[in-house]
Amino acid sequence: MSRELDEAQKEQLIDILTGKLKVLRAEMKISQQDLAKRLGISRQTYVAIENKSQKLAWNNFLALLLIFKSNDNTAKMIDWIGAYPLELEQYIKLDGE
After folding, report:
1. Closest by alpha carbon to 66, among 26, 17, 33?
2. 66: domain CATH number?
């Protein structure tokens, strides 16, 4: 059975990813505008998140994780920085195992 992530764990993962957004975006060779469009948010909102003046929402964290995990240039980086630990994998697993 998958275990729940508490708010502190979610915040820690959000902080890890937020701190590396510029590097990940550069590795993926995508503009702020294009990444914001994929997330369904404005460029201004994305810039505020990347500059840490606005908090990254959990749903946008998960969307960014999916985007970066599906890109050859950034997939391993996501694991390396600790943004996709086993606990998160278990949390989002659909089969409940």
Report:
1. 17
2. 1.10.260.40
DSSP assignment of 75-87 equals HHHHHHHTSS-HH
1 in any annotated domain: no
The 10 Å Cβ neighbour count of residue 3 is: 9
pLDDT in tens, 44-93: 999 999 999 999 999 999 999 999 999 999 999 999 999 998 888 887 77
Alpha-carbon Rg for the chain, nearest whole angstrom, is: 13
Q: What is the pLDDT of residues 20-49, one digit of tens each?
A: 999 999 999 999 999 999 999 999 999 999
Total domain count, the chain: 1
13 and 86 Cβ atoms separated by less than 8 Å = no
